[in-house]
Design a protein that fits this description.
The structure holds two protein chains of two kinds.
Chain A: H1 2-34, H2 39-67
Chain B: H1 2-33, H2 35-46, E1 48-54, H3 58-69, E2 81-87, E3 91-97, E4 102-113, E5 116-126, E6 128-129, E7 132-133, H4 136-152, E8 156-160
Antiparallel strand pairs in B: 1-5, 1-8, 2-3, 3-4, 4-5, 6-7
Classes of the chains: A mainly alpha, B alpha+beta.
Chain lengths: 68, 163
């Protein structure tokens, strides 16, 4: 029973990480596409998008762990 | 007439370029960028896990597999997750899906025989993303879990991958 609860909690955590990743990727990608004259800011936008992608991939591997 | 032929030729060239771009992207994905994914996916879609669980009823085997896997019965809005599409006394269907799209669907079917429950698990439908099977890792995991669960019930499981 506890094990099942842990699995459900882990799935929920993976889902939350994925949503954060999707939001980060979308915001970073949109801002990078819009562009800026500040190179530092541009690098930050790209890093935000890449960080979001990383979180999406990480959430997927976390979710797979809950499958067995 | 010449203008019409030129237009047809132009459209044909554009269609050829679009097709060639798609085909080369798929080929690159299958043979260079995601070779492991392509090979893993091809094996996963062909794999059938057959099992025999002596002295157990089919309904009990289906119920145990469904309960142990513990997949939800409702699809999420965005996140593609494993779901239980439906279960009867002799069959259960699973999918990796969200509300908009099913990446793949599989079936566990079990029948009562004189010596116990005989059954199989296989992927029925799948989708390709750039030439590679979508969600092939989940396919592998679920097939392995079905084998483990039926073995834990006291049965024997056999994995078959046709050439």
């Amino acid at each position: 029973m506890n094990e099942q609860r842990d699995i459900l909690a882990a799935r929920s955590r993976a889902r939350t990480i994925r949503m954060v990743g999707i939001a980060m990727f979308a915001i970073g990608a949109i801002l990078a596409k819009v562009g800026t004259t500040n190179i530092g800011l541009f690098i930050f936008y790209v890093a935000l998008a890449l960080g979001g992608l990383g979180l999406i991939v990480h959430s997927q591997s976390e979710y797979r762990k809950t499958l067995g | 007439m010449a203008q019409f032929l030129a237009l047809v030729a132009f459209i044909a060239v554009i269609a050829l370029i679009v097709w060639a771009k798609g085909a080369s992207r798929k080929a690159l994905n299958r043979h260079v960028w995601d070779r492991t994914g392509h090979q893993g996916g091809q094996v996963a879609i062909k794999t059938t896990t057959s099992f025999v669980v002596p002295d157990k009823a089919a309904a009990e085997v289906v119920r145990t597999v469904v309960d142990t896997l513990g997949y939800p019965t409702t699809k999420r809005a965005l996140a593609g997750e494993m779901v239980l599409l439906g279960a009867t006394g002799t069959e259960a269907r699973f999918a990796l899906a969200n509300k908009l799209h099913e990446s793949w669907m599989s079936r566990l079917s079990v029948a009562d025989e004189s010596d116990g429950a005989h059954g199989s698990y296989e992927v029925l439908r799948w989708t390709l993303v750039d030439g590679v099977v979508a969600g092939w890792k989940e396919m592998e995991i679920v097939a392995r879990r079905v084998g483990e669960i039926t073995t834990a019930l006291g049965g024997t499981a056999k994995v078959t991958v046709p050439e």
